[in-house]
């Protein structure tokens, strides 16, 4: 799920104005005199985060890393854009965390461990030192938590919304990356964590939840899940050792499972009632059963959906749980080329669209 401009709670122009009110007109005012405002920004807020020796202190145009022996590199990139993926008035530390974590989620689904990342930061006029300090502090905490160092990147000016792009590098033992294309008929479909929280959290931000009758704690849970994804990096090794196919759930479980099945040349049968939900999501669904479509197609879950051979299911479940990641079996892979079938309390669900798409 993203925040399509046509679905924002306020007009895009107002969101941009809010960002500009919060954030500077001239980055050259940051810090002590330096060759340029950009150099000052990098030196103050990002060079201290680039502790990996291959980052070269961010004084060069490139970084250099050596993959672990016997491993191959896994690379991915994702961007988050103000007014699309986050609200301009979201806390800057959560925006930084989201930008990094959506990429960590991709690595986790491939069974890969992070080696480091490149950050491209596009900022509109109005970005204050307060915003930048909070952004870099949140980023630094996640760098430490996930052992994923900053290696370099770029800073640019944008004409309106903030754009944060991360290109991340990971590694796996050669030949062991978990691909989308590996699922086989007979495999069991499993998903980590809980599904639907972030999409419901976005609905809360857009004031579309008056009838849900949620407690304050339940509302806070859904909002936090939208603000800060929880990449399942701890389950990467379990996935690498036991899953035949996997991908992260960024654009909606129904749509992303469809992509996995298409890549593998198979289909699947899913018991939607078995899809793991948080207490908050269950409460919302009890108040409005039609939310099942939002739960299954909304996206921004950043969980992992995987196909696991039956003989490996018990070992996979035990390994994931030992790593602190809950997994739930929700269906099975079958032969065929049709989209996966989702059944909910005896009826087949039909979706207006299976996942979010920018285009």
Note the run of SSEs as H and E. HHEHEHEEEHHHEHEHHEHEEE
Say what the CATH topology of the largest domain is: 60s Ribosomal Protein L30, Chain: A
- Strand percentage: 15-25%
Secondary structure: helix percent:
25-40%
As a whole number of angstroms, the C-alpha radius of gyration is: 21 Å
Give the termini separation.
13 Å
The coarse silhouette is globular
Total number of beta strands: 11
**CATH level 4 superfamily of the largest domain:** PurM-like, N-terminal domain
- Main-sheet strand order equals 6-8-5-9-7-10-11
Structural class: alpha+beta
Characterize the biggest β-sheet: 7 strands, mixed
Given the structure, what is the number of helices? 11
> How many structural domains?
2
Mean pLDDT: 89
CATH-level-2 architecture of the largest domain:
2-Layer Sandwich
Q: Please give the CATH class of the largest domain.
A: Alpha Beta
Which blocks of ≥5 consecutive residues have pLDDT under 50? 3-34
């Amino acid at each position: 799920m993203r925040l399509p401009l046509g679905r924002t709670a306020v007009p895009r122009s107002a969101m941009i104005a809010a960002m500009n009110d919060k954030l500077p007109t001239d980055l050259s005012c940051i810090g002590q005199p330096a060759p340029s405002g950009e150099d000052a920004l990098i030196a103050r807020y990002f060079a201290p985060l680039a502790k990996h020796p291959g980052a070269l202190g961010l004084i060069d145009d490139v970084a250099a890393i050596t993959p672990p022996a016997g491993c191959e590199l896994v690379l991915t990139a994702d961007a988050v854009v103000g007014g699309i993926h986050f609200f301009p008035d979201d806390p800057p530390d959560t925006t930084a965390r989201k930008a990094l974590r959506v990429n960590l989620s991709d690595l986790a689904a491939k069974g890969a461990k992070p080696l480091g990342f490149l950050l491209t930061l596009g900022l509109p006029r109005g970005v204050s030192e307060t915003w930048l300090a909070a952004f870099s502090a949140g980023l630094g905490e996640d760098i430490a938590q996930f052992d994923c160092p900053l290696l370099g990147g770029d800073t640019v000016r944008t004409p309106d919304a903030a754009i944060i792009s991360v290109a991340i590098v990971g590694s796996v033992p050669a030949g062991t990356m978990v691909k989308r294309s590996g699922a086989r008929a007979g495999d069991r479909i499993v998903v980590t964590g809980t599904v639907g929280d972030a999409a419901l959290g976005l609905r809360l931000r857009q004031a579309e939840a008056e009838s849900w009758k949620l407690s304050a704690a339940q509302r806070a849970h859904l909002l936090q899940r939208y603000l800060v994804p929880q990449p399942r990096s701890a389950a990467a090794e379990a996935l690498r050792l036991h899953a035949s196919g996997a991908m992260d759930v960024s654009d909606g479980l129904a749509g992303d499972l469809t992509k996995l099945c298409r890549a593998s040349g198979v289909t699947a049968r899913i018991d939607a009632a078995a899809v793991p939900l948080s207490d908050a999501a269950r409460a919302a669904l009890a108040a409005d059963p039609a939310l099942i479509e939002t739960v299954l197609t909304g996206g921004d879950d950043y969980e992992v959906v995987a196909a696991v051979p039956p003989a490996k299911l018990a070992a996979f479940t035990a390994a994931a749980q030992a790593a602190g990641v809950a997994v739930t079996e929700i269906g099975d892979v079958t032969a065929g080329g049709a989209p996966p079938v989702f059944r909910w309390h005896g009826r087949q669900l039909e979706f207006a669209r299976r996942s979010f798409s920018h285009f």
